[in-house]
Write a structure and sequence with these properties.
Elements (H helix, E strand, L loop, with lengths): L1 H21 L5 E8 L4 E10 L2 E10 L8
Antiparallel strand pairs: 1-2, 2-3
């Protein structure tokens, strides 16, 4: 019984590490850039990794901060 628990835990840990490693780096590309008020710029970024797309929005004055994480 103890041996089964050790194997199950090992498989779960391996699966978790593999999922994290598969999406540990984000590859962002800018989707849109819009001018706001008082010189503010609003940008939307898209990350596509392993069939999973997600979006982030950044804003700044004069230019949009880039996403690297």
């Amino acid at each position: 019984m103890r041996y089964t628990k050790v194997i199950a835990f090992g498989l779960l840990a391996s699966f978790s590490v593999a999922l994290y490693a598969a999406h540990s780096g984000h590859y962002w590309s800018k989707v849109s850039e819009q001018k706001g008020v008082n010189g503010q710029v609003v940008c939307q970024w898209k990350c596509s990794a392993i069939g999973e797309e997600h979006y982030r929005t950044t804003s700044g004055y004069g230019s949009c901060p880039a996403l690297y994480y």
